Amino acid sequence: MTREDDKDMASEPTTTPAVIAENVGKVFPGKKGAQVTALEDIDLTVARGEFVSLIGPSGCGKSTLMRLIADLDQPTSGSLSVFGKSAKQARLDQEYGIAFQQAGLLPWRTVRRNIELPLELHKVGKAERAKRSKELLSLVGLTDFGDNFPDQLSGGMQQRVAIARSLAESPNLLLMDEPFGALDEMTREHMQGELAHICAETNAAVVFVTHSIPEAVFLSHRVVVLSPRPGRIRAIVDVGLGTSSERTDHLRESETFFAAVSEVREHLHGSPDAVPMGVDNR
Ligand SMILES: Nc1ncnc2c1ncn2[C@@H]1O[C@H](COP(=O)(O)OP(=O)(O)OP(=O)(O)O)[C@@H](O)[C@H]1O
């Protein structure tokens, strides 16, 4: 039986949201007994197949929230569930894929073997691994690069490999923390288009951290604007640009796009022209 069959037989109803955060807070112990409240009262539901971006000033807790969802850390208050399971159970069941700013590829493995790594770790057989990596190489447009090593690829191509690897186990949820943060602007826009295409193909839900307002708007169904630390949800903007399959470059010139960019910016800083520290307006 494959993992796909496993998933089909899972008891979770298909209406169970991808993520539910209820009243989530996170306090870190600071120096000399002082405490750092990173997050407060976070209530957020991410539906299956939904693309939600988190945006806010530097240090407002975006990465912390991501780490809590991924069970890399635990909330100090409130509760979190992922597909109706505890964050820990969802991690154990490999319910999500992760892609962060640094592609994090293993330089001594070929592109194909990097993509196959999660499958190898979970003892998926050789033939099935080869089939899956072939599909994924095609999905991210790297069919001809499977036998290359990461340092033979551009930054954008490496990031595509990382995304392919995060999709290896067909997760219904992707957690992406500034995956395009290290790329130049042109490559970044290209990658945004690629990601929209991948989301349309896989129908995975995505929680995406970014500092770029246009990036958040181009990709997301909803943009969650966080306040300066302690991070609270200041506003949630419904972008209204349609499904992921409709996110093509011409949308960047549309009135709906500009209106959503202005709305997010206003929530971030209270005026259409102001941009808070750590948020990229381009
Ligand atoms: N392990 C930790 N111990 C103590 N404080 C922490 C820890 N991790 C994060 N913090 C603090 O929590 C706050 C939120 O950090 P976080 O990295 O989540 O912010 P962010 O919004 O992702 O920032 P940036 O946009 O700059 O990446 C910061 O004040 C940070 O110093």
UniProtKB/TrEMBL annotation:
The keyword Transport applies. The keyword Transport applies. PROSITE patterns: ABC_TRANSPORTER_1, ABC_TRANSPORTER_2. It holds the Pfam family ABC_tran. CDD domains: ABC_NrtD_SsuB_transporters (cd03293). Keywords: ATP-binding, Nucleotide-binding, Transport. GO terms for molecular function: ATP binding; ATP hydrolysis activity. Gene3D superfamilies: P-loop containing nucleotide triphosphate hydrolases (3.40.50.300). InterPro entries: AAA+_ATPase, ABC_transporter-like_ATP-bd, ABC_transporter-like_CS, ABC_transporter_ATP-bind, P-loop_NTPase. It comes from the Bacteria. Signal peptide: none annotated. This is ABC transporter ATP-binding protein. It comes from Terrimesophilobacter mesophilus.
